[in-house]
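User: Here's a structure from my thesis project, written as structure tokens. My advisor, Dr. K., wants to see whether a designed sequence matches the one we expressed. Can you design one independently, without my sequence as a hint?
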């Protein structure tokens, strides 16, 4: 019965099928193969995972572990082997099987980012947007924190996407050198300032 892929016949699925009524469902959970991850005879904790969390995830996601090892900087939860800090191992209504929407999840630890001018600031006090309807670098998803930052790690201490280590190189993923809107979108003023405070450009 434990290996039956039908919820009504599987002893796990009979009670827990409602946990899987989301857009993203993890492979073994989707066919009620709970015993793939859980030890059905464990004690004193019932149905504990067979092995430590990161080792269990790595059985299917080994390519991600190799990717993490190649990074110069690794995000804290990844370094600690705690995939479940961000990901739901069963099912989720959110992109990437996250436990919450991308920015809500990020702000759970990085709340200061939402209360300050992020990245750049013009005289108007506006900073770079944290979200938007389209991610210019990846048009098939919404713009969010992961438009610029890789949540697993990277080659910069800010975990820039695509292995990028220089700030301006990151900006140019979306804002090309000849794109004046690169500057105008943050402020209606005639001047912007670089991160180091020096004048950037007159428009």
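Assistant: Designed independently from the structure alone:
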């Amino acid at each position: 019965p434990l290996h039956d892929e039908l919820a009504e016949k599987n002893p796990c699925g009979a009670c827990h099928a409602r946990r899987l009524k989301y857009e993203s469902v993890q492979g073994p959970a989707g066919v009620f193969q709970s015993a793939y991850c859980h030890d059905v005879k464990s004690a004193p904790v019932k149905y504990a995972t067979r092995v430590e969390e990161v080792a269990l995830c790595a059985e299917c996601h080994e390519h991600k572990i190799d990717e993490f090892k190649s990074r110069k900087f690794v995000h804290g939860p990844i370094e600690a082997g705690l995939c479940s800090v961000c990901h739901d191992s069963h099912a989720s209504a959110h992109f990437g099987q996250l436990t919450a929407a991308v920015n809500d999840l990020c702000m759970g630890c990085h709340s200061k980012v939402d209360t300050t001018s992020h990245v750049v600031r013009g005289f108007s006090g506006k900073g770079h947007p944290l979200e938007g309807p389209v991610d210019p670098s990846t048009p098939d998803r919404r713009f969010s924190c992961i438009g610029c930052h890789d949540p697993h790690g990277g080659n910069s201490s800010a975990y820039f996407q695509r292995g990028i280590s220089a700030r301006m190189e990151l900006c140019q993923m979306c804002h090309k050198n000849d794109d004046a809107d690169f500057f105008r979108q943050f402020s209606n003023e005639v001047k912007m300032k670089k991160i180091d405070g020096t004048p950037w450009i007159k428009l």
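When you compare it with your expressed construct, this may help: Residues 26 and 32 are 10 Å apart (CA to CA).
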